[in-house]
Amino acid sequence: MIIVKETSTWVDNTPNHIYFLDDSMSKMFAYSIEGTSEPFYFKKPIGISTKHRTFEVLKKVEDVDENVIEVKGSKGDIYYVKKEGDKVTCSCQSFKYRGRCKHIEGV
Questions:
Q1: Residue 80 bridge partners (DSSP)
Q2: What is the pTM of this model?
Q3: Do 20 and 30 contact (CB within 8 A), yes or no?
Q4: How far apart (Å, rounded) are the C-alpha atoms in residues 64 and 68?
Q5: Three-state secondary structure along 59-70?
Q6: In the chain, where the domains are located
Q7: Taking the CB of residue 29, how many other CB atoms lie within 10 A of it?
């Protein structure tokens, strides 16, 4: 997975965003709206067209399971949410003790 920032110049000043893409840059797992820090995660990856668009690679994440999503907690900690079929798990302490947490909402 790679995390990229769009650097395209648009005629109508459309804002650019940050995208979480597969290595081929053809599927998007999540995106962050410009000016926000919380990404929106899709339930399933969606296709993205990169034609006539430019991107800057911010981070390359090696050996990531496509069913695992990295989520930033409210205090900046990183947690891993994994979806297998209908089952969703999180690496945070709240999920370990309660079986639910805010990180799995929207996944």
A1: 70
A2: 0.58
A3: yes
A4: 7
A5: EECCCCCCCEEE
A6: 1-64, 67-107
A7: 21
Query: Residue 104 corresponds to which tokens in the numbers above?
Result: 């799995």
Model confidence pLDDT, tens digit, residues 10-47: 999 888 999 999 889 999 988 998 877 778 888 778 99
CB neighbours (10 Å) of residue 34?
A: 12
Neighbours of 31 (CB within 10 A): 20
Quick one: tokens of 71? Answer: 């989520």
The amino acid sitting at 38 is E
Phi-psi region of 93 (alpha: psi -120 to 50; beta: other; left: phi over 0): alpha
DSSP string over 16-65: P-EEEE-TTS-EEEEEE-TT---PEEEEEEEE---TT--EEEEEE--S--
Strand order in the sheet with 87-90: 68-72, 78-84, 87-90
